[in-house]
Structures are given as structure tokens and as C-alpha cells.
């Protein structure tokens, strides 16, 4: 596979600049960084595709191009467009509310930054060993969020759901056809 060194260098520069721009506090720079990362991913998929060839549905197997990187590139373009539109909406709303597009620290960020190593160790030690044995959050029946009720649990419930019954044997078929119960009749049939 012949890969141009220039494409690899351009892809690496795009990745580096995109990551650097995304680490800023300005949402506009985050958007620019995300667009650079999206283009770097598209270039990576172009490099992975290898030598260009004929369309995948035409020609022999030797000179065909691989359709998977093409599909992944189209998917990456759509995802980049959708996230860019979302970031543009965030930038617009941030500008409307605060006349700035920078992300400021709130009280939780400041408290987290000021936490000491002793407090960090205390947070790690708060794990109970009893919780590790449970496979679910709802251990007992009394604490389960969903309880299936049946007619025997509550008098107001009517349990008339159809039940699977095995097919009758030939001996039972004649005897069963003679008997007709209220359940076998259609509604309104017994009213006449």
C-alpha cells in the first residue's frame, strides 16, 4: 500500500491542532477544534482506504476499492455536521445569555478543585463491601419497583388472559366438541 507521507503529516497536524483547540474555554474554539478533528478523521479514513480503484460493484476483485472506508467517511461527515450544529446552538445560546462564549467555573468545579488528597481518600473508602455482593439494586421483593399482580393478589383484578393449551389428542377431540362452555362462545351468542 502506497501512502503519501504528506497526507500522514497533514492528518497528524489536524489531530494535534484539533485537540489543542478543544481544550480551550471558548466554545467557538471548541467548535473549530471539533471541525479540525472531523477533517482529520476523514483524512485518516482516506489513508486507510489505500489505492483508489474502481467502484466496488464494477470490475474484478483486484482493482476494486474497499467500500467500508467510504461508508465510514460518509458517516463521519454526518456526525461532524450534527455535532457542529449542536455546538453552534450552544454558542448562540451562550452569547444570548452572557454576551460571551466562554465556559465559567461553577461552585461544584471550584469545590472539586479545592479538595485535598485526604478528602479524595475518604471518598474512595466509602464503598461498602455489602454492596459488591448484590447483583441488582433491588434486592428484596419489597423494594422492587415493579410487582406483577395476579387475580389471587387482588380481588378487583380480572385474570382472563388467553392461556396456551396443548392440542387435544384424537380421543379428546370428539368429547370436547360435544361440550360447549361459556368461555368458548363469542360475545352475544348466549343472549339469543
Automatic annotation (TrEMBL):
Domain of life: Bacteria
Subcellular localization: Cell membrane
Transmembrane parts of this sequence: 6-23, 30-50, 70-92
InterPro entries membership: CPA3_antiporter_subunitC, NUOK/Mnh_C1-like
Bilayer topology annotation: Multi-pass membrane protein
Region (Disordered): 159-192
Residues making up the signal peptide according to the UniProt record: none
Residue ranges, compositional bias (Basic and acidic residues): 173-192
CC terms in the record's Gene Ontology section: plasma membrane
Keywords attached to this entry: Cell membrane, Membrane, Transmembrane, Transmembrane helix
Family: Belongs to the CPA3 antiporters (TC 2.A.63) subunit C family.
Name of the protein: Na(+)/H(+) antiporter subunit C
Organism from which the protein derives: Microbacterium azadirachtae
